[in-house]
Please model this.
Amino acid sequence: MTNLTAIAGLAPYLESRRSRYPGTTYTIKAITEHEGQQFVRLREDDGDSAGELLVRVTRDGSIDVLALDTVLSEFPKTLPAAVISALRPVPASNSEVVAETSAITEADWITHARASAPAYTGTGSVNAMLMHWAMAALSNMSSAHAPGTESGNLACAWAVNRIASLALQQPVGGGLSTVNMNTVLAAKHGPPQGQPVAGDIIMSPTAHRTGHVGIVGGALDVVVDDTTPIYSNSSTQAVFLDHLKLGSWRSKYVNNYGLDLHFYRLNPSVFGLETLIELRVANRDTVIRVAGQDRLLRRSTKVVLLAEGATGWSTVAVLPQHQPQGLVQSAHLSPVPTV
Model:
C-alpha cells in the first residue's frame, strides 16, 4: 500500500486534519494518476465511526476534496472514466455476496427477539418496536459481513437500516450513506424533533468530516439527557454497541467536528403502518379502518369493515385494497379499536 508521505502535498493536508480531529487515522484505499494529478480514495476513522474521502493532489501539491461520505458509492461525474474505474472498490463476486448476506440473515438473537417483538398499535409504538430490536442487537449484531462496508468499518447506516428492517419490515433508506439517509429522513420523517426520545434516529450526516447515525437509547418513559446511551455500529469492532452517550456524541460530532445534529421520529405511514383511518360508509352505520397491524405482519394491504356494538368492535367484512370510492362519505383519524 502506498505510503502517505510518498504523495506530495497529501501528508501535510492529512496532518492538518488530524490536528483538527484528534484521534482520527487515515488509510489509502486506492490511488491513480491522470494527466499529472493524483486521485486518492482514503478512509477516515476515529474508532467510533468511519468514512471515505476522495481527494485530488494537483501538480503543485495542493489538495482538492472531491467527495466525502460514509461510503463513496458515487463519484463526481466530471472525473474521467479511467479515474473512476481505478478508484471504485472491486465489487464482490455473486458467491461472496450470497455468503455475506446469509451470514447476517438469521442468528439466534434474531430468533429470540422475534418471539417477543411488539406489534404495531399506533403511531407511538414505532419507537418501541425499534427499541426492542436495538436492545436485542446490542453486542449481538455484527456488521463484519455487511456487503460494501469493508468488514463493518463503514456500517453505521447499514446498522440502522438493518434494525429498521427487522422492526418495520423495510429499511429507512439511503443505503450505506449518512448523507443519503439524512435526505430520506428529512423528506419522509421530518421535520427533526426538538426533544428526542428513546427510539428516535440520531443523525450527524457527513459534510466536511465523516458523520455518524444511530438510535437514541434509554427507556421510553425516561427524559433523554447527556447520559442517555446511543446505539450504533462501532467502526473498530464491527458490532452494534452503546459505545456513545448523547453527551459524547454532541461533544465529538457537533462541538469538535462541526457537524449538524438531527433527531428523527420515524413516520409509520412510510412503512405501511398508517394511523388507522376511519371512513364512514354512506349507506350503513359502520366504519372502515385500515388494519395497520395486519399490514405489518402479512406485508399486504387490507381494509377491514368494522361495526361498533354493545360488546365492542366486531369485524363485518374484509375488503380489497381499492374499495369503491363511492362508499366513502368522510374520513378522519381515529384510535385503534379492539377486535
Q: What stands out?
A: Residues 136 and 151 are 21 Å apart (CA to CA). The chain has nine helices and 14 strands.
